[in-house]
Design a protein that fits this description.
Layout lengths: L12 E5 L3 H4 L1 H12 L3 E5 L12 E3 L6 H14 L5 H7 E2 L1 H8 L4 H8 L3 H13 L3 E5 L1 H4 L4 H14 L10 E3 L6 H6 L16 H11 L14 H10 L4 E5 L3 H4 L3 H10 L2 E6 L11 E4 L8 E4 L4 E5 L12 H11 L9 H11 L8 H5 L4 E2 L23 E2 L18 E6 L15 H6 L4 E4 L1 H7 L6 E5 L4 E8 L7 E5 L27 E7 L2
Length: 530
C-alpha cells in the first residue's frame, strides 16, 4: 500500500475494486465503513452484490474482466471535463500525451457496451473521484487475477496520478494483500526474479553485494529469473523440473486447473512439503516436514501497509515441529553450506544489512513498540507511512497507455456462463486452518454456487438443488444458491472446499507480465445433478 490503513479515514472519496473487503479484509472494511459514516463517498467497481454495495454512492456493476474499459472511460470524462490536476501532471509525471490519445477512444457509451455499466454512472463516478479529493483507491485479487491484471493495476495508477492522488495523505493506490505475510515474503525475495528488497537478480551490482554478504562465489548466484509457480508445474509435467520443495502452500486447492496440478505433481521424482497440517498437497509428498505455526515461533511479519511487526513465541511447537528457518538451516548444514544461524533475530539482522528498505529496522526498535513502515533506510529513521511524497521512487510517475483486452476465455454456446471465484468470511484461502475450526465450519460447512434467478429459471434449477458445473478443464458438483448477488450470465464459487474445488474449473492462462493465472474469469455450463 502506498498509504497506511488509517488514511482511508482521511479520504473524501474511496474507490474500491476487485475486493470483497467486508469478507476478505474485515478489519480494513471497518475503517472504510467508519469513513463512509463520516461522509466519505464510496465508488465500488464490482460484479457481485457484496456488503459494500449497499454503502456505495455509485456502484459500477461491470462484467468480470472489463475493468480497463470502465477506468479508461472514467479518465476520458475527467480529461474532457478538465477535472485533472494539470500542475501535478506537468511537474511529477511523464507519458501523459500518449495516454490521453488512448483514453480519448473510450467514451462512457463505448464502456457501457463493453462492461454493461451505465454511461451515466461512469460519468458520475468520474466527477466524484476527480472533485472530492483526496481520493484513495483500494484493490485486491479481483483485478490482479486476470490475463490483464498488470493492465488493470496500471490503469488504477493512471487514475490516481491524473488527479494528483499519489504521495498525499488520504490518497494513494493501495493493494490489499491476500494473506497475512504476502508483503513480507515478497520483500524477502520470495519471487523468482529478485533478491530481498526487490533487487533484480539480473543486476550485476546486486549479485556482487549478495555474494560478499553471504560469502559465496559470485558465479553461484543466478543472473536470470527463475520459474513462477505455474511455470514450475508445467515444468514438472514436461520433465524439466524433477524435484519440488513446497512450503506453506497448498497448490492442489489454490492453483488453477487442479487436475493439471495433480498430474504435474505426480510426474515429479521427489516432492517435499513443509507445513503445519497435512494438506491435500502434503498427502502427495514423499517427505512431509512439520513446521511450527505462528504462535509457536518468533519472527517478523510485514503487513499490507508495509508495517514490520514482531511476533513473539507464545507456546512451544508440538512433537517434531520446528520453525521454518530452523528446518531450512538444518537442511543447508546437511548439504555442507555451513549455515549456523542461532535465532530469527540473527537472520533479520543480516537481512537489514543487504536490504536498503529495512536497513534502519532492528528487533530492539520493534520490541520497544515502534511502528515502522519501510522504507526505513537508517537507524533512527521514523519509517515511511506514505510513499512517493514529493517525488516518485523512479523520479517521474509514468502514465501507461492501456487498451482494453477481453478475458482469455469468454462464454459461448457450449459454455454460456462466466465463472468468478473468491472467498467467504468464515474461511481463509484453502481452508487449511479454518475448516478445522468447528465453529467456522458450522457456519459455512458446504461448497455452493451462486446463480442468478433468471439463469436458474432458464436451466430449471431450484434453490439448494445439486448442480454440476463443467468447464473445459474439469467438473464439480455442489449446491446451488439462487441469488441476485450475481448478475445474469455470471456465477460465483468460493474456492476453499476440497470436496468441490473451484480451481478444477479455472483457467491457467497467464498475465504475460506478472505470470498470474486468470482465476477470476472462465467459461462454464451448469447441469442439474443427482
Amino acid at each position: 500500500m502506498t498509504n497506511p490503513i488509517a488514511d482511508f479515514g482521511k479520504a473524501r472519496t474511496l474507490l474500491v475494486t476487485g475486493s470483497n473487503t467486508s469478507e476478505n479484509h474485515p478489519i480494513i472494511a471497518h475503517h472504510m465503513r467508519r469513513a463512509i459514516r463520516r461522509g466519505t463517498k464510496l465508488l465500488l467497481l464490482e460484479p457481485r452484490d457484496i456488503p459494500l454495495a449497499g454503502l456505495a454512492t455509485v456502484w459500477l456493476r461491470h462484467r468480470p474482466g472489463t475493468d480497463v474499459a470502465v477506468l479508461n472511460a472514467m479518465m476520458n470524462v475527467i480529461v474532457s471535463e478538465d477535472l485533472h490536476d494539470h500542475q501535478y501532471i506537468q511537474e511529477r509525471t511523464e507519458g501523459f500525451e500518449e495516454f490521453r490519445r488512448v483514453i480519448e477512444q473510450y467514451s462512457p457509451q463505448r464502456a457501457q457496451e463493453i462492461s454493461g455499466v451505465s454511461a451515466d454512472d461512469i460519468v458520475l463516478a468520474a466527477r466524484i473521484y476527480a472533485s472530492e479529493r483526496p481520493s484513495s483507491i483500494a484493490y485486491a485479487m479481483g483485478i490482479t487475477q486476470h490475463v490483464t491484471g498488470t493492465d488493470n493495476v496500471k490503469s488504477l495508477a493512471n487514475l490516481a496520478m491524473l488527479c494528483g492522488n499519489v504521495g498525499v495523505e488520504g490518497g494513494g493506490v493501495n493493494p490489499l494483500r491476500g494473506q497475512n505475510n504476502v508483503q513480507g515474503a515478497c520483500d524477502m525475495g520470495a519471487l523468482p526474479n529478485v533478491f530481498s528488497g526487490y533487487q533484480q537478480v539480473a543486476d550485476l551490482a546486486a549479485r556482487q553485494k549478495m555474494s560478499q554478504a553471504w560469502g559465496v562465489p559470485f558465479e553461484s548466484l543466478p543472473d536470470k529469473p527463475g520459474l513462477t509457480i505455474t511455470e514450475i508445474l508445467d515444468g514438472a509435467e514436461s520433465g524439466q523440473v524433477k524435484a519440488l520443495y513446497i512450503m506453506g502452500e497448498n497448490p492442489m486447492l489454490s492453483d488453477p486447473d487442479s487436475g493439471h496440478v495433480e498430474k504435474a505433481l505426480g510426474h515429479l521424482d521427489f516432492l517435499v512439503v513443509q507445513d503445519i497440517f497435512l494438506t491435500e498437497t502434503a498427502r502427495l509428498a514423499d517427505v512431509v516436514l512439520p513446521a511450527a505455526a505462528y504462535a509457536e515461533r518468533e519472527g517478523t511479519y510485514t503487513n499490507t501497509e508495509r508495517r514490520v511487526q514482531l511476533s513473539r513465541q507464545a507456546v512451544p511447537p508440538p512433537g517434531q515441529a520446528r520453525p521454518d528457518w530452523q528446518i531450512i538451516s538444518e537442511l543447508a548444514r546437511r548439504l555442507d553450506h555451513g549455515w549456523n544461524y542461532s535465532s530469527a533475530e540473527e537472520i533479520f539482522t543480516e537481512l537489514a544489512v543487504v536490504t536498503p528498505q529495512y536497513r534502519g529496522i532492528t528487533y530492539e526498535r520493534l520490541r520497544q513498540g515502534e511502528q515502522l513502515c519501510w522504507p526505513c533506510p537508517t537507524p533512527g529513521h521514523p519509517g515511511t507511512p506514505i510513499l512517493h511524497v514529493g517525488r516518485f521512487a523512479r523520479g517521474l510517475g509514468k502514465f501507461h497507455a492501456i487498451e482494453y483486452l477481453p478475458p482469455a476465455e469468454l462464454p459461448d454456446k457450449k459454455y454460456p456462463l462466466l465463472l468468478t471465484t473468491g472467498r467467504v468470511l468464515q474461511h481463509f484461502h484453502t481452508g487449511t486452518m479454518t475448516r478445522k475450526a468447528a465453529g467456522l465450519e458450522a457456519l459455512a460447512p458446504r461448497p455452493f454456487i451462486e446463480v442468478n434467478p433468471a439463469d436458474a429459471r432458464r436451466l430449471g434449477i431450484s434453490g439448494s438443488a445439486p448442480v454440476r458445473v463443467i468447464s473445459r478443464r474439469g467438473q464439480i458438483e455442489l449446491e446451488a444458491r439462487i441469488d441476485e448477488r450475481v448478475d445474469c450470465g455470471v456465477v460465483f464459487i468460493p474456492f476453499h472446499y476440497f470436496e468441490a474445488a473451484a480451481n478444477r474449473l479455472t483457467n491457467t492462462a497467464l498475465d504475460p507480465v506478472a505470470k498470474i493465472p486468470e482465476f477470476k474469469v472462465c467459461a462454464v455450463r451448469l447441469e442439474r445433478a443427482g
